[in-house]
Design brief:
The chain is mainly alpha-helical and 232 residues long. It contains seven helices and three strands, in the order αααββαααβα. The protein has a three-stranded parallel beta sheet with strand order 2-1-3, covered by helices on one side. The longest helix is centred in the last third of the chain and has 25 residues, at 195-219. The two termini are 15 Å apart.
Length: 232
């Protein structure tokens, strides 16, 4: 571990962190983008349309699965989440999740009008599907808004996008929404200059954030119920 990764070193010393070495696949592909695709789909021999997380979410679904079974944090969903059936919502900040317009008289009127359009005619070929999808979206936003109020923590996270994202995951875990997988990314480690300085910043952020997250889980008595997997 880099010397800046004191948080993860502490977890390792406590027996709370394992490092799996030598993970890979035969005949590694050296294309940057194809390599990412292989890691996200777990298909080294062919172009796949589904990711390994998405296949898992499909495997555990029963009927119309909850739209909150898997949640992506950030504005860009990974190919790892694509699947045939299990749609994974992307959340870009819990504070405003579900609000298209501000909570003002005009904003509420615009929201009501938009909802009326989205919940419109269900007699068209895809109308019922759009209605169900829109209703699930509104229901999910309400459940998240109500659930995150249960979160109370004294843990301090790094004030970075990754730190804020992981704290939002902690909030969603505290909400008890039945989510099985949360997915978040951080970067960029693909540097071309001043690598030591930049990588020290990145690894310290990863290390401090994961240590804070684990401390938060233990504070809410969820330390033994959540597995965090980091891969690159």
């Amino acid at each position: 571990l880099s010397p800046v990764m004191t948080g993860m070193k502490a977890l390792y010393d406590q027996g709370r962190l394992a490092i799996i070495q030598g993970v890979g696949y035969p005949n590694p592909n050296h294309s940057h983008f194809r390599s990412m695709e292989i890691w996200q789909t777990a298909e080294p021999e062919k172009i796949a349309s589904e990711g390994w997380v998405g296949r898992y979410l499909d495997a555990i679904r029963s009927g119309r699965t909850s739209p909150l079974t898997g949640i992506n944090i950030g504005n860009e969903a990974s190919e790892a989440l694509t699947s045939a059936h299990a749609a994974v919502p992307s959340i870009q900040g819990l504070a405003n999740f579900g609000f298209v317009f501000p909570h003002t008289a005009d904003g509420d009127a615009h929201t009501a009008a938009l909802k009326k359009v989205q919940m419109g005619d269900g007699s068209t070929p895809y109308g019922r599907f759009f209605q169900e999808t829109a209703q699930e979206t509104y229901d999910s936003a309400d459940r998240i808004s109500a659930g995150i109020k249960k979160y109370h923590s004294t843990v301090q996270y790094p004030t970075t996008p990754f730190g804020r994202g992981m704290q939002e995951i902690a909030q969603l875990i505290a909400a008890g929404l039945g989510t099985r997988v949360f997915y978040i990314s951080t970067g960029s480690f693909d540097t071309h200059a001043q690598q030591i300085r930049r990588h020290d910043q990145l690894w310290k952020d990863v290390s401090d954030t994961l240590a804070s997250f684990q401390s938060d889980l233990e504070q809410m008595n969820a330390g033994d119920d959540v597995l965090t997997l980091a891969f690159s």
